[in-house]
Specification:
This protein is an all-alpha fold. The chain folds into 2 domains: 45 residues; 219 residues, MetI-like fold, CATH 1.10.3720. 71% of the residues lie in helices and 0% in strands. It contains 14 helices and no strands. About 5% of the residues have low confidence. It is found in: Cell membrane. It is a multi-pass membrane protein. Belongs to the binding-protein-dependent transport system permease family. InterPro entries: MetI-like (IPR000515), MetI-like_sf (IPR035906).
């Protein structure tokens, strides 16, 4: 009786040489690829973090310098090398800024124009967004494109026309002259329109069956759903009006009608370029309200912009 002797392969055939294509050679190659991918990932993440840090410092350093200079003495401001930390903090800059320029009046003007302008613009935005989203109106498509096209035009294009208009109406150096020309922008309307398009039409059909007209559908069905987006749009609009500089500068010529951004320029013209402590204190007074507003509402603002960009 014959026996069969099993054939034993050479050891080298089983283990193989890494990367030579023989059995067993794939594992080391995969490990090298995994390590290479991991190294590239670490490098890309490190580069991204460095870029983010540099970008953050680009914005943070000027803000820190403004706040620190506002409480520095004149000797600290002009010292060399630079004193990043105030040696002897003082509030004298704020006292001089408040005494030199009527910041109380500037603050009232900014609050009135920003609040009233935001309310009026949001009212127009809500009604126009509802009309474009749910109503049948002639030439709705071309009208919508035309309104959105106005967002592409620089605001300075209409400065001369708006100035002539309010001058003929006798609105120079008035609240209505500061507010009315700036309430017809399309930004808030576009955000609300994008939100309203996501609402199921079955909700409106049910409301119509119950006898609801357009106003009742808007206030009872649509607006409660769009409140988060409306709040976001209102915050963005308010910040834009608060920081407006060119139009208030053109539409007003008296100090008692100037807003905070113009008030900072007025302070600098009074104090000159030598008293940087007072000028920086004025900059803090002007920018602090918006910095606080953005700090507490940044999630709503960023979320609203992202939602408006993604929904279509």
């Amino acid at each position: 009786m014959s026996t069969t002797t099993p054939v034993t392969a050479p050891v080298g055939d089983l283990t193989g040489t890494p990367g030579d294509g023989t059995p067993g050679s794939g594992l080391p190659g995969e490990l090298r690829n995994a390590r290479s991918r991991r190294a590239r990932s670490v490098l890309s993440q490190t580069a991204l973090y460095i870029l983010l840090v540099v970008t953050a410092l680009t914005f943070a350093v000027p803000l820190y310098w403004m706040f620190s200079s506002a409480v520095k003495s004149q000797s600290d401001i002009y010292s060399w090398p630079i004193n990043w930390i105030p040696g002897s903090p003082t509030w004298q800059g704020f006292v001089e800024a408040w005494r030199t320029a009527p910041f109380g009046r500037f603050f009232v003007n900014s609050v009135v124009t920003s609040l009233v302008g935001t309310v009026l613009e949001m009212v127009l935005a809500v009604f126009s967004a509802y009309a474009f989203a749910f109503m049948r109106i002639p030439f709705k498509g071309p009208l919508f494109v035309l309104i959105l096209g106005s967002m592409m035009l620089p605001g300075h294009v209409t400065l001369l026309v708006n100035y002539i208009t309010i001058s003929q109406l006798g609105w120079l150096n008035t609240y209505q002259g500061l507010i009315v020309p700036d309430i017809g922008t399309a930004f808030a309307m576009f955000l609300l329109y994008q939100q309203m398009r996501q609402i199921p039409k079955e909700l409106l059909d049910s409301a119509r069956i119950d006898g609801a007209g357009h106003l009742r559908q808007l206030f009872s069905v649509i607006l409660p759903i769009c409140v988060p987006m409306a709040v976001t749009a209102a915050l963005i609009v308010f910040m834009g009006k608060w920081n407006s500089y060119v139009w208030p500068l053109i539409a007003t010529s008296t100090v008692d009608m100037r807003t905070l951004p113009i008030g900072l320029q007025f302070l600098q013209s009074q104090e000159g370029y030598t008293n940087w402590g007072a000028v920086m204190a004025g900059a803090v007074i002007v920018s602090l309200p918006m910095l606080l507003l953005f700090f507490f509402a940044q999630k709503k603002i960023i979320g609203g912009i992202s939602a408006g960009a993604l929904k279509g």
